[in-house]
Amino acid sequence: MAFSLVVTCPFTGRRQGPFMRHAVLLTIFLVLLQVNAWAEEEAVKGNILTLQTCIDKTLASHPDIRKLLFEVEEKNAAITSSKAAILPQIFVSAEYDPIKTFVMPQNGRFLTDDHTAWRAGIGLTQKIYDFGSSRGRIKASKLSKKMAALSLKEAKRLLIYNVQTLYDALLLQKAAMKAREEDIKNKEALYLQAQELVKNGLKTKADEASVLASVYSAKDAYFGAKSAFLKARVLMELYTGETIAIDTEYEDLLEKRSLIELGPKEEKELNAIFLDKNSKMQIQKQAIRQSEALLASAKGERYGTIDAVASYTRESNFSDYDTSMAGLKVEIPIFTGGLLKARVAQARASAAQAKEAFSLQKLKLLSEFEGTLIDLHRAEAGIQARKAGMAAAREASDLMAARYREGLSTYVEVLGATAQHLDAKLGLLQARNNKSKALYYIDYLMARGENAHE
Fold first, then answer.
1. Per mean pLDDT, which range of 4-13, 142-151, 269-278, 373-382 is the poorest?
2. Average pLDDT over residues 201-213
3. Is the dihedral of CA 78, 82, 83, 87 positive or negative?
4. pLDDT at 18 over 70
5. Per-domain residue ranges for the chain?
6. Which spans in 118-132 are helix H?
7. Were 293 and a residue from 130, 139, 151, 238 both cysteine, which residue would form a disulfide, CB within 3.0 to 4.6 Å?
8. Is the pTM of this model over 0.85?
9. How do residues 412-422 score in pLDDT, each as one tens digit?
10. pLDDT for position 296
C-alpha cells in the first residue's frame, strides 16, 4: 500500500522565517503519522480471520457437504425412476432375416422354402391400477429426498457447531498463552528479586532455586497452551481448506458471548419448540412416513396389476401382412413362495422400528437439551465467581509481591498468591468458553441458520 503526500506553500516573495518552516514540517509529520496509523489499522483489519469466514469456507469445501449434495441429486433421480412405473411404456422391435427357411406339408411330404423375411412393430403398455403399490413407492421416494435434504441441513449445522467451538478453542488457547506469558514475566522478575535478596542475605539459595523452578514450570505450561493452540489451528486449516498465517488475528467473541443471557421464559419457550425445529427429529418423522408408504406399497403388491396393452406389427415373408392388438392385461400373484407375505412383514417391522427410533431420538435430544441448560447455568455461575475471585487474587498477589521485595513474606506465599491469580484468570477464560459452547450447542439443537452470530 503506497501513499503520496504533496504539500504546497504559497510564497509571497519574502523569505519564510524559522517559525513558518517548523510549522510546515510539524504539519507534514502529523499528517504522515495519521496516514501511517490508518494504514496499520487497515492492515490489521485485513488480517483478521472472522468466524463467519471460517464457516463459509468450511461449508464450501467440506467433503461431507458435497457428498450429501450428490445424495440429494441421487434421491431426485430415484423419484423420476419410481414415477416411470405409472407412465406409458413405449417400445419398438425389429427383426430382419436374410434367409429364413419355411417348412410346409404337401401331399404327405414336407417341403422347405428359403425366403428373406423381416418384421417391425411398436408396443404400448400403460399401468391402470396396481392397488397403491406404485403410489406408495413414489411417495417413499419423495420422502427419501426430504430426508436427504434434512440430512444435508443437519450436516451443515453440525459442521457450523464444530467450527464455532474450534474457533472458541483458538481464542481460549491464545488468551491462555498471553496469561502464561505474563506469568512467566512475573516469575522471572520474582527470580531476579530472589537473587538480589540472596546476595543481601535476606533469602536463602533454596528460595532462589524454588522460584527458578516455578519459572520453568510456567514455561512448560505456556508451551502446553501453545501446543493446544497450534493443534486447533491445524484442525481449522483442515476444515477451511486454507493455510492460516502465524500472525493472523481473531475476533474476540468469548467475552461478548458471555454477556448473552437466557431468562427462564426464553428457556421455557426453547424447550417447547426445539423438538419441532431439530433436524434429527424431522428426519425421524419423515422416516416414519416413508416406512408407512412402503408398507402400503408392499400390501398392494399382493393383489396384482391391471395394465392396458396395445401393439402393431408389420411382417413380410411369403406375403406382407400386419397384426394389431389392444386390450387389458391382468396379473394376479397366486403363489410366490411367500415372497410377498415376507415383504409385508418386513415393511411392517420397519414401520415399527421407525416409530421406536423416533421415541428414542426424542428422549436423547431432551436429555441433551436439559444437560446443555445445566452446563449453561454452571458456566454463568463460574463466570461470576471467577470475576470476583480474580480481583481478590490480583490484590493478594500484588500485596505478597510487595512484601517479598521487603523480605517480609516467603516465596511460598508469593507463588501461592500468583498461582491463585493465574488460576482465576484461566478459570474465567474457561468458564466463558463453556458458556459459549453451551449457547452454540443450543443453536445446533434448534437447527438455526448458517450465520455465525445468529
1. 4-13
2. 81
3. positive
4. no
5. 1-43, 47-445
6. none
7. 139
8. no
9. 777 778 888 88
10. 93
CA distances from 145 to 8, 68, 106, 133, 138 (A): 71, 11, 67, 19, 11
pLDDT of amino acid 196: 83
CA angle 88/90/96 to nearest 5° reads 170
Residue 2 is predicted with a pLDDT of 44
- Architecture (CATH level 2) of domain 47-445: Up-down Bundle (1.20)
Instruction: List the strands of the sheet with 320-331, edge to edge.
Output: 89-106, 109-129, 305-316, 320-331
Q: Are strands 109-129 and 249-250 parallel, antiparallel or unpaired?
A: unpaired
User: Alpha-carbon distance 19 to 25, whole Å?
Assistant: 10
Q: Distance (Å, rounded) from C-alpha 442 to C-alpha 257?
A: 13
Q: How many CA atoms lie within 13 A of 190 on its CB side?
A: 34
Cβ-count burial 91-112 (b if 16+ within 10 Å, e if not): eeeeeeeeeeeeeeeeeeeeee
The two counts, helices (H) then strands (E), for the chain are 10, 6
135: cell is 403410489
